[in-house]
Design a protein that fits this description.
Structural class: mainly alpha
Largest sheet: none
Distance between the termini: 51 Å
Oligomer: single chain
Shape: elongated
Radius of gyration: 18 Å
Strand content: under 5%
Number of strands: 0
Order of helices and strands: HHHHHHHHHH
Number of helices: 10
Protein backbone atom coordinates (compact mmCIF):
# COMPACT_ATOMS: atom_id res chain seq x y z
CA UNK A 1 0.00 0.00 0.00
CA UNK A 2 1.31 3.46 -0.90
CA UNK A 3 1.84 6.44 1.37
CA UNK A 4 -1.48 8.37 1.43
CA UNK A 5 0.22 11.66 2.29
CA UNK A 6 2.66 11.47 -0.64
CA UNK A 7 -0.09 10.34 -2.99
CA UNK A 8 -2.43 13.06 -1.74
CA UNK A 9 0.22 15.72 -2.13
CA UNK A 10 0.86 14.64 -5.72
CA UNK A 11 -2.87 14.72 -6.48
CA UNK A 12 -3.26 18.15 -4.90
CA UNK A 13 -0.39 19.60 -6.93
CA UNK A 14 -1.88 18.10 -10.10
CA UNK A 15 -5.20 19.75 -9.21
CA UNK A 16 -3.43 23.15 -9.09
CA UNK A 17 -2.34 22.66 -12.70
CA UNK A 18 -5.92 21.87 -13.73
CA UNK A 19 -7.47 24.73 -11.74
CA UNK A 20 -4.99 27.54 -12.24
CA UNK A 21 -2.93 26.51 -15.26
CA UNK A 22 -5.47 24.86 -17.54
CA UNK A 23 -8.47 26.77 -16.08
CA UNK A 24 -10.42 23.50 -15.94
CA UNK A 25 -12.44 23.55 -12.70
CA UNK A 26 -14.23 20.26 -13.41
CA UNK A 27 -10.95 18.37 -13.73
CA UNK A 28 -9.50 20.23 -10.75
CA UNK A 29 -12.54 19.42 -8.63
CA UNK A 30 -12.24 15.70 -9.35
CA UNK A 31 -8.61 15.77 -8.23
CA UNK A 32 -9.21 17.82 -5.08
CA UNK A 33 -12.04 15.53 -3.98
CA UNK A 34 -9.83 12.51 -4.62
CA UNK A 35 -7.13 14.18 -2.52
CA UNK A 36 -9.54 14.76 0.36
CA UNK A 37 -10.59 11.13 0.31
CA UNK A 38 -6.98 9.93 0.17
CA UNK A 39 -5.64 11.98 3.11
CA UNK A 40 -8.63 12.34 5.42
CA UNK A 41 -7.14 9.98 8.04
CA UNK A 42 -3.51 10.99 7.52
CA UNK A 43 -3.26 14.79 7.35
CA UNK A 44 -5.77 17.36 8.53
CA UNK A 45 -3.87 20.08 6.70
CA UNK A 46 -3.82 18.34 3.33
CA UNK A 47 -7.47 17.44 3.83
CA UNK A 48 -8.29 21.05 4.66
CA UNK A 49 -6.38 22.35 1.65
CA UNK A 50 -8.08 19.80 -0.60
CA UNK A 51 -11.50 21.02 0.55
CA UNK A 52 -10.39 24.65 0.25
CA UNK A 53 -9.41 24.20 -3.38
CA UNK A 54 -12.55 22.09 -3.97
CA UNK A 55 -14.49 25.12 -2.77
CA UNK A 56 -12.77 27.32 -5.33
CA UNK A 57 -13.47 24.78 -8.07
CA UNK A 58 -17.15 24.74 -7.10
CA UNK A 59 -17.15 28.56 -7.09
CA UNK A 60 -15.67 28.63 -10.60
CA UNK A 61 -18.55 26.35 -11.61
CA UNK A 62 -21.03 28.70 -9.85
CA UNK A 63 -22.14 25.96 -7.43
CA UNK A 64 -22.55 28.03 -4.29
CA UNK A 65 -24.08 25.43 -1.94
CA UNK A 66 -21.29 22.91 -2.58
CA UNK A 67 -18.69 25.70 -2.34
CA UNK A 68 -19.89 26.78 1.09
CA UNK A 69 -20.03 23.15 2.31
CA UNK A 70 -16.43 22.67 1.18
CA UNK A 71 -15.33 25.86 2.93
CA UNK A 72 -16.88 24.63 6.18
CA UNK A 73 -15.17 21.25 5.76
CA UNK A 74 -11.84 22.99 5.10
CA UNK A 75 -12.26 25.08 8.23
CA UNK A 76 -12.96 21.97 10.32
CA UNK A 77 -9.93 20.09 9.01
CA UNK A 78 -7.54 23.03 9.34
CA UNK A 79 -8.85 23.75 12.82
CA UNK A 80 -7.81 20.26 13.94
CA UNK A 81 -4.27 20.50 12.54
CA UNK A 82 -1.30 19.83 14.83
CA UNK A 83 2.33 20.98 14.38
CA UNK A 84 3.39 17.39 13.61
CA UNK A 85 0.96 17.15 10.69
CA UNK A 86 2.76 15.94 7.55
CA UNK A 87 1.38 18.90 5.59
CA UNK A 88 2.22 21.57 8.17
CA UNK A 89 4.65 23.44 5.90
CA UNK A 90 1.96 23.87 3.22
CA UNK A 91 -0.39 26.05 5.22
CA UNK A 92 0.26 29.76 5.71
CA UNK A 93 -1.36 32.69 7.55
CA UNK A 94 -4.26 34.24 5.64
CA UNK A 95 -4.56 31.29 3.27
CA UNK A 96 -8.14 30.43 4.18
CA UNK A 97 -9.38 34.01 3.80
CA UNK A 98 -7.48 34.48 0.54
CA UNK A 99 -9.11 31.47 -1.11
CA UNK A 100 -12.52 31.96 0.50
CA UNK A 101 -12.52 35.57 -0.73
CA UNK A 102 -11.67 34.37 -4.22
CA UNK A 103 -14.57 31.91 -4.02
CA UNK A 104 -17.10 34.64 -3.28
CA UNK A 105 -15.73 36.78 -6.10
CA UNK A 106 -16.38 33.90 -8.51
CA UNK A 107 -19.87 33.56 -7.01
CA UNK A 108 -20.62 37.25 -7.59
CA UNK A 109 -20.80 38.12 -3.87
CA UNK A 110 -18.41 41.07 -3.78
CA UNK A 111 -19.38 42.35 -0.29
CA UNK A 112 -18.64 39.00 1.36
CA UNK A 113 -15.45 38.64 -0.67
CA UNK A 114 -14.29 42.09 0.47
CA UNK A 115 -14.72 41.23 4.17
CA UNK A 116 -12.71 38.00 3.86
CA UNK A 117 -9.97 39.56 1.74
CA UNK A 118 -9.63 42.62 3.98
CA UNK A 119 -9.09 40.32 6.96
CA UNK A 120 -6.63 38.19 5.02
CA UNK A 121 -4.47 41.02 3.65
CA UNK A 122 -3.11 41.80 7.11
CA UNK A 123 -2.30 38.14 7.78
CA UNK A 124 -0.34 37.18 4.66
CA UNK A 125 3.38 37.82 4.50
CA UNK A 126 4.28 41.42 3.61
CA UNK A 127 5.37 41.96 -0.02
CA UNK A 128 4.71 38.30 -0.87
CA UNK A 129 3.11 36.92 -4.04
CA UNK A 130 0.13 35.90 -1.89
CA UNK A 131 -0.29 39.48 -0.69
CA UNK A 132 -0.36 40.72 -4.28
CA UNK A 133 -3.11 38.21 -5.09
CA UNK A 134 -5.16 39.22 -2.03
CA UNK A 135 -4.82 42.91 -2.91
CA UNK A 136 -5.72 42.30 -6.55
CA UNK A 137 -8.87 40.39 -5.58
CA UNK A 138 -9.70 42.98 -2.92
CA UNK A 139 -9.53 45.69 -5.58
CA UNK A 140 -11.89 43.67 -7.80
CA UNK A 141 -14.34 43.22 -4.91
CA UNK A 142 -14.35 46.99 -4.37
CA UNK A 143 -14.69 47.83 -8.06
CA UNK A 144 -17.74 45.56 -8.30
CA UNK A 145 -19.33 47.55 -5.48
CA UNK A 146 -18.41 50.82 -7.21
CA UNK A 147 -15.99 51.75 -4.40
CA UNK A 148 -13.68 53.32 -6.93
CA UNK A 149 -11.41 55.41 -4.68
CA UNK A 150 -10.82 52.46 -2.34
CA UNK A 151 -10.15 50.18 -5.29
CA UNK A 152 -7.60 52.58 -6.75
CA UNK A 153 -5.77 52.82 -3.42
CA UNK A 154 -5.74 49.02 -3.12
CA UNK A 155 -4.35 48.65 -6.63
CA UNK A 156 -1.52 51.07 -5.88
CA UNK A 157 -0.60 48.85 -2.92
CA UNK A 158 -0.79 45.75 -5.14
CA UNK A 159 1.48 47.37 -7.74
CA UNK A 160 4.06 48.16 -5.05
CA UNK A 161 4.13 44.47 -4.09
CA UNK A 162 4.32 43.21 -7.68
CA UNK A 163 7.12 45.65 -8.53
CA UNK A 164 9.17 43.81 -5.92
CA UNK A 165 8.34 40.18 -6.71
CA UNK A 166 6.89 40.16 -10.28
CA UNK A 167 4.39 37.48 -9.23
CA UNK A 168 2.36 36.40 -12.25
CA UNK A 169 -0.88 35.74 -10.36
CA UNK A 170 -0.91 39.17 -8.76
CA UNK A 171 0.09 40.85 -12.00
CA UNK A 172 -2.81 39.24 -13.88
CA UNK A 173 -5.30 40.37 -11.25
CA UNK A 174 -3.96 43.92 -11.27
CA UNK A 175 -4.46 44.22 -15.01
CA UNK A 176 -7.91 42.61 -14.76
CA UNK A 177 -8.89 45.15 -12.13
CA UNK A 178 -7.42 47.98 -14.21
CA UNK A 179 -9.56 46.89 -17.15
CA UNK A 180 -12.69 46.86 -14.98
CA UNK A 181 -11.92 50.43 -13.88
CA UNK A 182 -12.08 51.78 -17.43
CA UNK A 183 -15.69 52.91 -16.92
CA UNK A 184 -14.29 55.57 -14.55
CA UNK A 185 -11.54 56.91 -16.82
CA UNK A 186 -12.87 60.42 -16.37
CA UNK A 187 -11.58 60.40 -12.78
CA UNK A 188 -8.06 61.70 -12.26
CA UNK A 189 -7.23 58.92 -9.80
CA UNK A 190 -8.06 56.26 -12.38
CA UNK A 191 -6.03 58.06 -15.05
CA UNK A 192 -3.04 58.23 -12.70
CA UNK A 193 -3.41 54.53 -12.00
CA UNK A 194 -3.50 53.80 -15.74
CA UNK A 195 -0.19 55.62 -16.13
CA UNK A 196 1.31 53.47 -13.43
CA UNK A 197 -0.04 50.31 -15.10
CA UNK A 198 1.63 51.33 -18.38
CA UNK A 199 4.88 51.76 -16.45
CA UNK A 200 4.44 48.26 -15.02
CA UNK A 201 4.11 46.84 -18.54
CA UNK A 202 7.24 48.67 -19.69
CA UNK A 203 9.34 47.59 -16.69
Amino acid sequence: MGDPVSEGLALLRTSFVALYGEKNPSAGLELTLETAEKVQRSSNILGGLAFLHSAEAYAMLRRRIECEKSLRAAERFLGRAEPNDAGFSMVSPGQFGRLAGSCFLFLGDAPRAEVLLQESVTEVREKSKSQAIVLGNLALARIRQKKVDEAVGTLHRAIEVVEGNRGGGGLNLIFKAGKELQSWNDLSGVRDLNSRLFGLIAA
